Model the fold of this input.
Amino acid sequence: MSSDAVAAVTETPRNRRQEETFRKVLSAGIEMLRESSYADLTVRAVAARAKVAPATAYTYFSSKNHLIAEVYLDLVNQVPYFTDVNDAMQTRVDKVLRALTLVVADEPEVAAACTTALLGGGSDPAVRTVRDRIGGEIHKRIRSAVGPNADPRIVSALEMTFFGALVNAGSGAFTYHQIADRLTYVVGLILGEDR
Done:
């Protein structure tokens, strides 16, 4: 699939039927990841599980890495925004980073597959596009948690810290739960304890 076709698939709004098919394949993909490993997953197998033709699945997902990247984006999109003005900024930021960190914490096969697909799918333009969309969603949640008039340098520092933390968790250096706890400490350093 050409990069123009991939861009059209990812940026063109889908009608209701297309969205249902996309969701059906996406759901089958996450179910299969929860049951097996990255190595065992194929777009064809996911299509069979979703009861759609492989060509239909390939209409929405150019590769296994693209499918897995979309799975991770869907999980990120489920993370709520933390904007309660009654909470201190540090509390809001800690909540959003913890929630984003823990989206795959209790699903090791999903976590491993997402790490592999997002870090290893560099030459696939569809994966790059989804990676950019993931970054955009994370940026929006962090910026929202920081609040109005957010200093872009603070938002950038929090984003870089978050992505570095995910790499540490994805490499196995720490568990996702340990990383979430460490992020609380680092958020305090970046924002200052009194914010």
Remarks:
- The chain has two domains: 13-61, 69-191.
- Confidence is low (pLDDT under 50) at residues 1-10.
- The longest helix spans residues 125-146.
